[in-house]
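It would be a great kindness if you could assist me with a short task in structural biology. Thank you for your consideration; the sequence and its tokens are set out here.
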Amino acid sequence: MYGAPADDPQETLRRLQHEKSEVAGMLQILTSKLHDAQEENFDLHASMATFESETRYASEKNEREMQNRLTALESKLVFMKSELQSAERTKLRAIKEVDELQQKQRVENKRREAERRLMATKRRKQGSFLASRQSTMMSQQLSQQVVRPPHVQVVETAVQTELKLSEKTGESADNGLKEENARLVSYLLTGTSRDLLTLLNGTVSVATDDTKPNPEEDRTQPPQGCHSATPSQFLQGSSGNSLNDSMQQSPGGMLFSQSVFSQLAGRASTQAHASLLSAALETNVTKTMLATDRAKELYDVVGRMLAGNVSAVALAPVLIKYLAAPTDLEVSMLCSVLRVMYAVMHHSAYFQHFLLVASSSSEGASSSAADFEGSANSMVHPRIALLGLRLTSLDDYLSAQTEYKSVVQSDLLQLSAADFTSEQRQLRAKLMSALCRVIKNNLKESSVVKDGLCVLCFWVDLGLSHRPVLAPDVKPLLAANVIPAILLAPKCLPAVKAQALGLLSHLLRIPQVFAEVEAEAKKSLLFNRCAKMLANEETIPPNEAGNMRKLQHQFVKLLLSIITSFPSVGIRFVLESTQGLPSDSDGHRSVIYYLAQLLHQETFDARTTGGESCVTRQLLNDQLRVDLIQGSFTLLGLLSRYVDLHIELGGDDHVHTFLAVLFFLSNLGNDSIAATARSLVAMMNLPRH
């Protein structure tokens, strides 16, 4: 009741209000400071964004400018490089011209030295350089039937190849050999072909575009590019005129500044040019020396043949030396050698007997028995007669058979033992190997390949005509892989490839050859490459279209001969060998697909223009195309029984295209083609299981 007096509420309220106002003021101050800080933060963010955008824009602008400058510099660099290359070419051309002018005197000195060497060679080889005059005298002596001039003994042959005549035959056999040799030499010298004169002259044709043999020229005409001049005259002309012509190409009287660099480069270019000229000159000298030496040996052998001392078999070592020369001769001379060999094979029974291997009686009996039984490995089908040697007339065939039988009957018993000697076998193998070597080394020269294939075809055909008594030795031919090399050569002509396929079809008729061809075909995919030729989609010139169809027809006939000769394994071999590698995109396709593509290409124009159009009449009038279509249908008919055509054709679009081809050909005027087409249409429409 008597305590301290209580505070005045009014005073307390005022004090609290005062504190509240102070707190509110402080809060307002803090709030304003917060707003100021937020505004500053916003301004900073805006400034940063502006700075970033300006920086990015400036960097992009600089980058574009640098890119434009870089592009301009690159284009300028390319232009400067092209200008530099042009300047270098101009400089090299100028250096070359200056070098030619500076070294003209040196080249003239080298030419004079070469001429002096050739004159010395001419004096040493004077007898061989007169081969043209001696061959002319020989032909005159043959026409007048006078005694042969005495021959000069030259280099001995490496293998003795003369056929030893039996003493029992006496003078009649000697006269018969003389007459045969005289007829052979007379044909080689005075016939339509003068290749023997070319070889006796020992000339080497100049390797120019004008003298290159035409692959389509007549084989009976003398080869172009063979000159009647002696080898010394040829070399003198090649060493003198060709160099003078090359010197005349550079303009005279032009003066250039001689710097140290140009002088050094000029000396190096001069040395290289002189080495090339000397190498070409040495090559021409080597070829001429080889041709001259072979001409001398050939002349000696021909003289001994006319005397009756040796038979035409003595020409074999000389032919081997021509074909197996360390440096290949000119194309025209190689063609002459091959044509001479072809003529000797045709007109000399002794040479024919030398080319073949005599079989024993047991081998002949076994082979004939195997042919009679018609086993799967036999090359001759018992119901199909495939003739071997083809002659132009019946009189030629009878005369050839009579002449050959007389030689075989008189000499087979005497020469059967000698035929198996190592010398005879080695000589035959060398001749075959040299022939294959020349063909493989000259795949770009169609004339050499065609003449070589003619010789090989006749050699194989000769053995097929006289089986089982005589047979050809084709092991060197198979080991050399000549046929695959020709067929797989990219620049080989279709006509030459067709000729190679013909040789392969002949070889497949020899026993035990099919197994080797089958093994080789799996390694090289030879038949797959040939099957792709059936569906060739490349643009072919009109003059080569016929040869391409001949090649396709020859391959179709080859497959047909394999199937008919080997009924058990032939179809399987044809289907498997024409497929590619499993990793290839088209490795699963067999010859059936390519045959269908071939028929589609051959009939496309006729199908699109109508049934009675001019194109259809042209198709029916072209016997080669009709034979190609008929052969393809025959092969398809044989293979279609063992495969599913829908799977082999590969897709519904190809099946419909093939059916369109079949419907078109079923209404064609050719009865055999129409019948085959209707049978295939019926087979295609059969329900599939």
Q: What stands out?
A: Residues 145-170, 204-265, 359-394, 411-420 have pLDDT under 50 and may be disordered. Residues 556-684 form one domain.
